[in-house]
Amino acid sequence: MRKEILRDDSCCIASKTLQDDSVIIRILCQTQLILSSPDNNENLKANDLLTNIINELNNFRVVISDSGYHLDEFNLFFTQDGLYNEDGKHALDDIKIEDLLIEETTTTTTKQTKHIQQNTELYRKLYPWKIIKGKMLKMTTEDESCYSPVIQLCTGSSTTILPIVVDVILVCDRTNTFSEIRNRLEQNILKQMDYIETYLEHNIENIKLFNTATLKPYHCYIKSLNQILTIISDNTQPNDDIKQVSLRKQIHEQYNLPYDRPLISKLNAIDFDLEQTNGTRLFNVHKNLPSKVQGGKQTLVIGNYAYYHYMQDGIDDNQWGCAYRSLQTLASWFQLQGYTEKKPPTHKQIQQTLIDIEDKPKKFLNSRQWIGSMEVSYVLQNYLNIECKIITVDQGANMSEHVREIIHHFETEGTPIMIGGGVLAHTILGVDFNEMTGDCCLLILDPHYTSVDDIKIIQDKGWVGWKGWTFWDQNAFYNLCCPLRPKTF
């Protein structure tokens, strides 16, 4: 008898709480329901489909207990009988995750700790966890290789095929044995099948859905919960579809999440390919920087961003492209937080946008002309539909007068700020401020960097770092472009 399903139309599953050294095992299985109904009457057809769905999902639940799992990175598979790798067969209780991983040397010495902090590869990922990808396999006694299970029932004259993707993540401690992992994987897959059944039951009257839908989970990390939520929905529905909006609203309510940011949007799903292969850019390069203000309170950018700087993407923009690069960093924030599918604009797209709104003449395209804070705000508005607030500083010597306004921006909006003045542009990522003494530094990301992406150089040489008020040209006029994030979920 199958477990009683949770009558929760949100179709959302929460992981266990994460730690920095957690290991995530991700298991994929693509299958399909091949359903039939002998009657053309829509009501009867819906009832027949529901009956078939329940029967076939129950059959799949039986298959799960006999299935095995293959972990790609380690070329091993494990079943209820044991774990198999190049060394032979092992008891599930004898092997732990940590036995498969290269031991990470930890130390308390300052030199070695600093080396760990400045490992560039750690900054090519958004999250610190080890991710292991695998697949679910059905065991067979015939002379054929393991394969993903397929559910099918073809007994009537009217046949409907519904693709289903089982995509399960398991948050593990490194000391977990494979006996524990297998049991938890089976529980999580069964739970996901229960939620899929619930989703289909709630949509059974929409027969057309079963001819076009693909039920595919996606996973979002929620920092306030320190958990990953797995959401199951029809991935053919656009992100702004009324059903998708209703689904997200229910989940926000269930987990007491704010309604002013897209925490569980499909656009905010974890990119496992990026996390396992590492990206081409560095992310959040300010991490692990020490404070510079004694007794200060730090107010920082909220969320993730990519570091854009001179000479990337095969473009020699040295001495003219700093504002373009700062704009790209700002745009990356909106992409990485799930506000848009658009990638940060290229130099050409930036210039074309300014031409299209008649801010620049046609000859501006493919030129090496500078842009400033106002142009950055125009592009954000027209390319991403993002409004901006402009803070004007009449001269650099008066920058400190705006510190509370900048702090308020990071507290309420959390977006990086582009600042332009004189002939330079930079990106502000945060404030370190001592209310009692008035001491303050701004966290500055410098787009003028021209070398390879080495986090040690970037941090040690100050290409990202805390800067005092003397960093600014005391006589120059500055505009701060402060993007305002859309209040949406």
TrEMBL record:
One of its GO terms (biological process) is proteolysis. It comes from the Eukaryota. GO terms for molecular function: deUFMylase activity. Keywords: Hydrolase, Protease, Thiol protease, Ubl conjugation pathway. Residues 297-481 form the UFSP1/2/DUB catalytic domain. InterPro entries: Papain-like_cys_pep_sf (IPR038765), UFSP1/2_DUB_cat (IPR012462), UFSP2-like_2nd (IPR049387). The keyword Hydrolase applies. Gene3D superfamilies: 3.90.70.130. Residues 112-272 form the UFSP2 second domain. Belongs to the peptidase C78 family. This is Ufm1-specific protease 2. It comes from Didymodactylos carnosus.
